Amino acid sequence: MKLRKYSKAELKELSNIHYTSFSDGILTLLGPKYLEVFYNFLDQSELEDILIFNKKKVIVGYCVISYDTKTILNRAIAATFLDFSKAFFLRLFNIKLQKIVFSTLFKVNSSIHESPEIAYIAISEEFTGKGYGEEMLNEVCAFLKKNAYKNIYVKTMDSIENRAVNFYKKNKFFLLKKTTVSGKNYVYLKKNL
Asked: What's the rounded Cα separation, in Å, for the pair 186 and 172?
């Protein structure tokens, strides 16, 4: 599997992988069209790196590394306000989306913000369960180490159904903190590179 920077033409495919991987997230609830806008925002951001993992020219997965995850959604909403507003108002009666949006916009961020942090990491559905996630995570860590970073951080939901916590622990991440944001439990994990 090969790690590389993405091409602009692949942003739509990344937004599709995101849409199928993060069913309860704010971006997915805003719809596929807004996801494309969001990934175009990331493309122009100097505070994020998007890395593609492919096998024989097929995208297996991707990782968004943020150097300022504390503000990523607020920066995206501000930069794409008209698109965000349209997506939000088209789904105005989605109570779940309302709660997430208002808590995101008006919350005091309780993170123990460190960077770089994995903002999004996902494997295309056809490649899940085949060990590519671990291989991809190792490549991300090598990329960051090569760029003189000493640690990597990740925040993920803390629930029985979320296999990510065990995945990260198996890959030498350790627990930093548990917290609740917008009524959801999260864990912050760290790995020394």
From this structure: 18
Among 22-26, 29-33, 101-105, 162-166, whose mean pLDDT is lowest? 101-105
Specify the CATH number for the domain of residue 165.
3.40.630.30
Which residue has tokens 């990329």? 143
pTM: 0.85
Q: How many domains does the chain have?
A: 1
The set of residues, in sequence order, having a beta carbon less than 8 Å from that of 71 and lying 6+ positions away, is none
pLDDT in tens, 53-77: 988 888 999 999 999 877 788 889 8
At position 33, the amino acid (one-letter code) is: K
- Residue 114: domain span: 2-192
Distance CA 148, CA 77 (A): 31
Residue 54 to residue 19: CA distance in whole angstroms:
19
For 157-171, the pLDDT digits (tens) are 887 778 889 999 999
Sequence-separated (6 or more) residues with CB below 8 Å from residue 193: 141, 144, 145, 149, 150, 151, 152
